[in-house]
């Protein structure tokens, strides 16, 4: 005979099993967006914007027809948007007028970086600086001026760094932060932001969208003006070149790059959550292309 305690135990097991089953809940309003009714003119405008933002030009009619067809066949899905964006960034096939989409894309990044930091200075201005420095180098060597020789050689290297930046970045030899270091540490940036006070304020504003705090300014000014060593952003610098490296290696520089992408592509600053989400992957990888892609894929950018 089964004891009452055994029946009670079986009842408890049944009760617990029943309680463990969760009722299914239906979330209202969670319906995937239907893009079939998006007007063709909006799709064409989206293609136009992508080409302008990534390549600096509008698409040819053949390119527009092709890419609108790709988007329509994929129902404007995020995958098809990514397919087009990735092609414009990475396709090295020959394209009339651009050599290739990839080359045009990296030229666009180079031009935008110069526009942001160097007021759009032409490459010819750097070539002129190199020519002047080479003349000074010859003169200094003839007169035995070792300081003049050293100064001229440094000027030549700083200018050549800028001119090499696009190709080195395209080939993956440098990261985006090193390109920005070159754009800070050169004679043209020095001319635009004459004297150490202006240089410090401009470098913070250009990279971080803010001016330095009192302590940051004091340390930065001493580094540039007198070569006095100082600690910034978890590193140490004792001259202008090292100072520029500290700025572009900081976490705040990469946050500034995300902000710059939002401002140039969407026209607003990212929310704290948006910036955090992108920083998780972008900070260690410095993959600016992924940041741009994720923004360009959004309905907000596309106006769908």
Protein model, in words:
The protein is mainly alpha-helical and 304 residues long. Among the domains are: 40-90, no CATH class; 253-302, no CATH class. It has helices at 4-20, 40-55, 61-73, 78-90, 101-118, 123-143, 146-170, 176-184, 187-192, 195-208, 214-226, 240-249, 251-265, 272-285, 288-296, 299-302, and strands spanning 94-95, 99-100, 230-232, 235-237. It has a two-stranded antiparallel sheet. Strands 3-4 form a two-stranded antiparallel sheet. Strand 3 (230-232) and strand 4 form a beta hairpin. Helix 4 crosses helix 5 (101-118), helix 5 (101-118) runs parallel beside helix 8 and helix 10 (195-208) crosses helix 11 (214-226). The longest helix is centred in the middle third of the chain and has 25 residues, at 146-170. The chain starts with a helix and ends with a helix.
């Amino acid at each position: 005979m089964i004891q009452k305690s055994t029946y009670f135990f079986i009842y408890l097991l049944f009760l617990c099993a029943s309680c463990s089953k969760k009722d299914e809940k239906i979330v209202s309003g969670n319906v995937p967006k239907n893009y079939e009714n998006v007007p063709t003119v909006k799709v064409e405008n989206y293609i136009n914007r992508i080409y302008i933002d990534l390549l600096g030009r509008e698409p040819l009619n053949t390119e527009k027809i092709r890419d609108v067809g790709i988007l329509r066949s994929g129902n404007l899905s995020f995958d098809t948007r990514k397919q087009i964006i990735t092609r414009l960034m990475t396709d090295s096939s020959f394209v009339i007028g651009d050599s290739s989409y990839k080359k045009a894309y990296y030229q666009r990044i180079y031009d935008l970086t110069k526009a942001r930091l160097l007021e759009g200075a032409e490459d010819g201005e750097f070539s002129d600086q190199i020519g002047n420095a080479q003349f000074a180098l010859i003169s200094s060597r003839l007169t035995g001026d070792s300081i003049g020789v050293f100064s001229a050689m440094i000027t030549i290297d700083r200018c050549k760094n800028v001119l090499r930046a696009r190709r080195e970045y395209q080939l993956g030899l440098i990261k985006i932060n090193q390109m920005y270091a070159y754009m800070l540490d050169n004679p043209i940036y020095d001319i635009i932001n004459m004297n150490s006070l202006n240089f410090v304020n401009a470098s913070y504003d250009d990279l971080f969208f803010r001016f330095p705090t009192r302590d940051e300014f004091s340390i930065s000014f001493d580094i540039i003006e007198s070569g006095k060593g100082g600690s910034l952003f978890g590193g140490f610098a004792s001259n202008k070149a090292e100072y520029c490296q500290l700025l572009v290696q900081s976490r705040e520089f990469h946050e500034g790059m995300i902000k710059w992408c939002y401002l140039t592509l969407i026209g607003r600053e990212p929310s704290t959550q948006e910036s955090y989400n992108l920083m998780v992957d972008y900070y260690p990888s410095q993959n600016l292309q992924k940041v741009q892609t994720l923004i360009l894929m959004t309905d907000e950018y596309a106006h769908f």
